[in-house]
Design brief:
Length: 178
């Protein structure tokens, strides 16, 4: 009896974070995707201004679905010359690959967080990525934040090998309301 009560109490504590079913529209106003690239003599920060997609959430956090398309031409950085270089064929090749995308394939509970795995498509290549997120879904709003790292070379971005670090830190923040 005590064990059953404890399990029910634990379920009630988790349930409010994912109370109602809802689909949220992701836009550049409510969703940010930023990056930090590093090299021996420093780092550069940037991100993408334009993206579209949806996040669907319900009572079960593991049923969450996220789909997002990123406009690579909206890429920006802290240096105008670098922004132009990043848009060129050495990195994103925006003319040939104007869009990148992410589609979740699996969501798992990870303590008080969620671990979202999905397919990230860059430069026409699709590779799996996993990000651990803080996530809150209640009262008609969705908040999600994740900081994770990808290896840019998996998508063919090999420019500056040995001078530019292959690991790129990404920060995804979603703050949506119905």
């Amino acid at each position: 009896m005590v064990r059953t009560f404890t399990l029910m109490a634990a379920a009630l504590l988790v349930a409010p974070a994912f109370a109602e079913d809802a689909t949220y529209k992701l836009t550049g106003e409510n969703t940010t995707l930023k990056f930090v690239g590093t090299k021996k003599d420093g780092k550069h920060e940037g991100g993408f201004k334009t993206l579209t997609g949806t996040a669907t959430c319900g009572g079960d956090p593991t049923a969450m679905k996220i789909e997002c398309e990123i406009d690579c031409a909206s890429l920006y950085s802290d240096n105008e010359m670098l922004t132009g270089h990043l848009k060129g064929p050495d990195f994103f090749g925006v003319k040939e690959n104007p869009k990148a995308s992410f589609k979740s394939t699996k969501v798992e509970k990870d303590g008080d967080k969620v671990k979202i795995t999905g397919d990230l498509t860059l430069l026409g290549k699709t590779k799996p990525v996993t990000m651990t997120c803080t996530c809150e879904h209640k009262d008609g709003s969705l908040g999600l934040k994740s900081e994770f790292t990808i290896d840019r070379t998996q998508w063919g971005m090999t420019y500056g090998d040995g001078k530019v670090d292959n690991a790129v830190a990404l920060t995804l923040t979603i703050a949506c309301k119905k």
